[in-house]
């Protein structure tokens, strides 16, 4: 019979994908994927960072090695699972969060949960292509489950950046669309009430010059730390452009090494 510790470790490995381990790292960077996304894109970032920073990416239920698990239906469910998986590996080391699109909101909510319940907080929160949760506009859209496949595909095309190989391949669409719909449904049913106390860490916001996220500056409402913003060429998925990805990775590396790693 497995011990509680081994069960805990197995669960952490299910949720937290780390492809490039650095046991000697001085800081952990945890990345949170976009709606419909998996963990591997950001987990692969680990090979581009100095060994002083270990990179992991969150693997949500219903995808990759967790395809047999049901999708999460509420933000509270997601935050509780992620927090429980992260606690064993974040107790004794500084950490930072990075999230893109939906991942930005999940990253913030996880950070807030850890601070309120465990007195743990990221040293820095990096958000990308996302309005803050108190400016969430997904609830104003028709339910994703009431949309036709054609309407959903148009919604995805308007956001930009989803590879054509997915949109034009029926087999890939059959895998992708249920994941995307579950994630959007989660956002549409998420209501955020700003707490009396928010974060105190600094926040850096990245976004594309051609995208529609219009309330990025409102992230300043959610921390007593400083907030900086950078716009990079492109649409909602500007960060898949290699030069933009390099800029973000270099920026985060410099920021974290200068400020938090001796």
Automatic annotation (TrEMBL):
Catalytic function, reaction form: hexadecanoyl-CoA + H2O = hexadecanoate + CoA + H(+); tetradecanoyl-CoA + H2O = tetradecanoate + CoA + H(+); dodecanoyl-CoA + H2O = dodecanoate + CoA + H(+); decanoyl-CoA + H2O = decanoate + CoA + H(+)
Role description: Contributes to the release of free fatty acids from fatty acid synthase (FASN). Has broad substrate specificity, giving rise to a range of free fatty acids with chain lengths between 10 and 16 carbon atoms (C10 - C16).
Sequence ranges assigned to domain Thioesterase in this UniProt record: 28-248
Keywords: Fatty acid biosynthesis, Fatty acid metabolism, Hydrolase, Lipid biosynthesis, Lipid metabolism
Cell membrane recorded as keyword: no
Quaternary assembly: Interacts (via C-terminus) with FASN.
A single BP term in Gene Ontology: medium-chain fatty acid biosynthetic process
Cross-referenced PANTHER family: S-ACYL FATTY ACID SYNTHASE THIOESTERASE, MEDIUM CHAIN, THIOESTERASE
Record flagged with keyword Transmembrane helix: no
Gene3D superfamilies tied to this protein: alpha/beta hydrolase (3.40.50.1820)
Organism encoding this protein: Sarcophilus harrisii (Tasmanian devil)
Name this protein carries in UniProt: S-acyl fatty acid synthase thioesterase, medium chain
Similarity comment text for this entry: Belongs to the thioesterase family.
Pfam families for the chain: Thioesterase
InterPro entries associated with the record: AB_hydrolase_fold, TEII, Thioesterase
EC number: 3.1.2.14
